[in-house]
Amino acid sequence: MRHLTPADYRRMPWANGRGVTVEMARADGPDGLLWRLSMARVDENGPFSIFPGVERNLTVISGPGFDLRGALSLRADPLVPVAFPGDVALSAQGVVEPCDDVNVMTARALPRPVVTVERAGAVLKGEGLLCLLALGPARVNDIGLGRHDLFQTRDLAALAGGPVLAIRLFV
């Protein structure tokens, strides 16, 4: 079990230099990135960074959402996870006000993560590494979480409050 707060996170520029990412958690292997959880703000139309060999799963956690256009055409609506290859050129389009999102990146060789929005009363099995990002005040297994706290476990997780973004990594 691990409980992280925003004070534990690391801020860094986007790979394309057009914004800032808040890296919440990350694991690397001998060949580089295994997985990474981060938050970012999209406040204007523009290109997403390219990440070869990486799968991405993006969930808008505040704001009205936006379109992802390029080689694919996807909609990033609030609290609806959307998955896409990290090495496909995409741009945010139709940004009418700032949106905050959570980005899950996994090495392509790994099983795809499962990302869901969970609410009070949910009991989540400890399959793989379960990462719960509080989108508001919440309690997980009687541990209080503040907004944007991250709780990681491989055991059962009982949720009170919320919602939380539940990210299941199979590593």
The gist of it:
Helix content is 0%, strand content 58%. With 171 residues, the protein is mostly beta strands.
Give a structural overview.
This protein has 171 residues and is mainly beta. It has two domains: 9-107, Jelly Rolls, CATH 2.60.120; 114-169. 0% of the residues lie in helices and 58% in strands. It contains no helices and 19 strands. The protein has strands spanning 2-4, 10-13, 20-29, 32-42, 46-47, 54-62, 66-70, 73-76, 82-85, 90-93, 99-107, 114-118, 123-124, 129-134, 138-140, 143-145, 150-153, 157-161, 164-169. A six-stranded antiparallel β-sheet has the order 2-3-4-11-6-9, with no helix packed on it. A five-stranded antiparallel β-sheet has the order 1-17-14-19-12, with no helix packed on it. Strands 5-10-7-8 form a four-stranded antiparallel β-sheet, with no helix packed on it. Strand 7 (66-70) and strand 8 form a beta hairpin. The model has no long low-confidence stretch (mean pLDDT 96).
